[in-house]
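Worked example 3 (structure in, sequence out).
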């Protein structure tokens, strides 16, 4: 059948006693399902979308729920997001699966834009929408001057904007606003705004918006130089991909992660559905490499905070827990975890 938007979908009807088996079968990746079937065979069972059966007499062992299938095979229930053949069976056997992050764990959004640059809504409207979405704090991070098409901010406008953000934050209840910037990383790796300006802000997200065609050595050196700047706290959409439109730029992601971990710079999972950058694989590598992650919507309108769930889904696929994501902390904990404040303590 065709769904709205032209998406093709199959409808499969199964008996109630097979529902869990069907859910497991059609949510697991090929590698996960092969490994699970091999595990079943080794234990004298046969596993398919209708259930787990004994080979000797064909009787149904499990199938009504996904959890009972995993339990019958000596495993704890494996969340659908982890069924990728990345060691989840071994972790489930050891009862060592992570407690995955949930959307309810996110306390603040760290990347959004207002009408001061290319956003559709003003500071107060964005703040109220974030509060309505259940967030405790919001970083306003409009663009810097290199993005002239977005009416990017120079140093004077950035500091005046920060003052305005703080004034609005002081008079709003139930939401704290952080005065930030999304500062362009120039082609040579320098920042688009002067250090004395960046030092006055609460948070700086550094991002690439130009010169995407640099070779891997150039782009990697560019990103490492940005990370070396003491006033950069977060690298935004780190690989620059736009799904179905633009491939990631050439970049040694391993070196990026190592440098970010060493410097205390967080790497962003951007929730925009055409970005989802970091990807799940890169976010897992960041976690394994000791780098901190933030999950940000990059909202350009007050309706866009709903996209937060997509970034959380990426984080779950990456095995991330609440402790791995900086903006699961309250506003004081978040501030304390930023590179600029860690450096000062």
């Amino acid at each position: 059948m065709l769904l709205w938007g032209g998406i093709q979908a199959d409808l499969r009807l199964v008996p109630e006693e097979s529902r869990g088996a069907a859910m497991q079968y059609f949510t697991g990746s090929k590698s996960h399902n092969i490994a699970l079937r091999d595990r079943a065979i080794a234990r004298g069972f046969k596993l398919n979308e209708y259930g787990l059966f004994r080979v000797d007499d064909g009787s149904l062992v499990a199938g009504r729920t996904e959890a009972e299938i995993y339990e019958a095979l000596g495993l704890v229930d494996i969340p659908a997001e982890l069924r990728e053949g990345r060691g989840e069976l071994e972790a489930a056997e050891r009862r060592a699966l992570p407690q995955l992050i949930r959307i309810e764990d996110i306390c603040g959004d760290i990347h959004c834009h207002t009408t001061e640059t290319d956003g559709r809504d003003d500071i107060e409207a964005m703040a109220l929408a974030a509060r309505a979405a259940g967030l405790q704090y919001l970083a306003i991070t409009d663009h810097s001057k290199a993005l002239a098409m977005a009416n990017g901010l120079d140093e004077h406008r950035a500091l005046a904007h920060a003052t305005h953000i703080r004034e609005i934050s002081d008079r709003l209840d139930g939401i704290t606003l952080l005065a930030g910037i999304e500062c362009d990383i120039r082609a040579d790796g320098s920042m688009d705004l002067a250090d004395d300006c960046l030092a006055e802000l609460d948070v700086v997200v550094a991002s690439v918006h130009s010169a995407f065609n640099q070779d891997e050595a150039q782009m990697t050196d560019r990103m490492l130089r940005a990370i070396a700047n003491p006033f950069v706290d977060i690298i935004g959409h780190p690989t620059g991909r736009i799904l179905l439109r633009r491939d990631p730029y050439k970049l040694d992601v391993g070196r990026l992660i190592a440098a970010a971990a060493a410097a205390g710079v967080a790497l962003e999972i951007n929730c925009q559905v055409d970005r989802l950058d970091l990807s799940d694989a890169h976010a897992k590598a960041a976690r394994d490499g000791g780098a901190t992650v933030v999950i940000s919507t990059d909202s350009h309108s007050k309706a866009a905070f709903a996209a937060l769930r997509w970034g959380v889904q990426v984080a779950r696929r990456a095995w991330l827990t609440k402790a791995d994501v900086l903006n699961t902390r309250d506003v004081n904990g978040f501030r304390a975890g930023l590179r600029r404040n860690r450096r000062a303590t």
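Notes: The chain has a mean pLDDT of 96. Strands lie at 45-48, 51-54, 60-62, 108-109, 137-140, 176-184, 203-207, 234-235, 266-270, 293-296.
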